[in-house]
Amino acid sequence: MNPCKWSSYIICATCEDGTVLFKNMMTGSVARLSSQLVAEIGSWLEGNSNNPPEGVVQQLTHPDCGMLVPCGLDEHSFWQEKYVDKRNGESELFILHFLPTLACQLNCGYCVQSGITRSKSMTHETYLRSLRCVREYLVSHKEIKSFRMVLFGGEPMLRKDLVVEATTAFHGLAIECGIDFWTEVTTNGELLDEETLKTLSHCNLRRVQVTLDGPESVHNSRRPRRAGGCSFPGAWEAIKMLLETDYIQTVDVRLSLDLSNVESLPELVRDLSELGHTGKVNLSLGLTTPSFGLPSQEVWNKEREIAEKALIVWRVAKECGFNVLREFVVGPWCIAIAKHSVVLQPDGTFQKCFCTAGRAEYNFGSVSATAPATYFKDERFEAWDRIKPCLAEKCPFLPVCGGGCIHDAIVAFGEHGHTKRFCQKELISSYNRGLLLLNYE
């Protein structure tokens, strides 16, 4: 009996010259084989040939490659064990999403926080309590080796005073505890200034994300200012400042994408390339999906079309010299299921997912109480049984999906959605096969 089989996690795409690209979604390894070689390997695996193609099988069976695996290996059970073990036993990272305010000067029609009360802003007393709470947590969880602080909102730059004070203090706390620390900022860019940027750079600023929705006219129509006026100039100037200074190595520019604006995104990509810093820009496409306040099903019902449109944008990005996304991931390492992660809201309450910010039914604790004895836990985001259908189907996309986004599942299926998988196989399949060709053909 042949000792090997093709991995269940392989996806394939055929190039124009007839060669075949293989990608293992577990290991990330990519191989390009001639159709003749594929046929020879297939014949050997089926027992029609006693001798494997010389040299190739050794490479394909290497653990870092994993195209061919032992016949007796139950890959999906192995993945499940690795997934849970990594989440529970190897969790050395503490992630704090710090929301100093839920207010925002923009009024984006697709915002996941649509419909919430935005008047809440963090008091200094709440901030001090959060500092004490996090200190207790870090002291009681010695396995934590790194602290990632993400400044989020609302728009965090509406509270620059607290952003600067809190980041500096949490940085000092990490030093006190002997762990690594870095800062990230998610902002619409309008209020970001160089002085704040310089201060945050002293706290190991690694990432700043600014969102654009298209060229100026499209962006302004989709992301209007609440008080009137255009939001594009401020965001564009923020990106230029980030590119022209040395406070951060790369600048994350997130392009919001749905079927109403996707045709304009190639023009925006070309405009970005004309700034002359393509190597410093980390492009990403963020699909605008239904949320509690905006239950439209457009994205969920048109998965293949969305994937095809996104790939057109990436093709233009590649032509312009930007790095292209290697694979499209919708799970499974979301911060909402990370063991040592928490979203700290302006009123001092805790949540696991920043998409539910401002919705009190997703609160599970507060800085006013003693730090959790175990860890920051919300059982709604630990429904591991939801991936059972994925395991039964031996889905090749399980390593990049993990049952899908829990927030999306709750929006789609209601109160008990956290126990159900949110399957977007058509989107994930079309998107990842397209990226495979775009990157390696």
SSE order, as H and E?
EEEEHHEHEHEHEHEHHEHEHHEEEHHHH
**What is the average per-residue confidence, as pLDDT, rounded to a whole number?**
92
Uncertain spans, ≥5 residues at pLDDT below 50? none
SSE-based structural type: alpha/beta
> Strands of the largest sheet, in order across it?
11-10-9-8-7-6-12-13-14
Overall helicity: 25-40%
Largest sheet: 9 strands, mixed
Q: Tell me, briefly, the overall form.
A: globular
Proportion in β-strands: 15-25%
Distance between the termini: 35 Å
Compute the number of helices.
15
Q: Please state the CA-atom Rg, rounded to the nearest Å.
A: 23 Å
User: How many β-strand stretches?
Assistant: 14
Structure report:
This protein is of the alpha/beta class. Helices cover 36% and strands 16% of the residues. It is built from 15 helices and 14 strands. It has helices spanning 35-45, 56-60, 75-89, 124-140, 160-177, 194-201, 216-222, 232-244, 265-273, 298-301, 303-319, 388-392, 398-401, 406-413, 425-440; strands at 4-6, 10-14, 20-24, 30-33, 68-70, 93-98, 146-151, 180-187, 205-212, 251-257, 281-287, 341-344, 349-351, 365-366. The chain has a nine-stranded mixed sheet. Strands 2-3-4 form a three-stranded antiparallel sheet. Helix 6 (194-201) links the parallel strand 8 (180-187) and strand 9. The longest helix has 18 residues, at 160-177. The protein starts with a strand and ends with a helix. The model has no long low-confidence stretch (mean pLDDT 92).
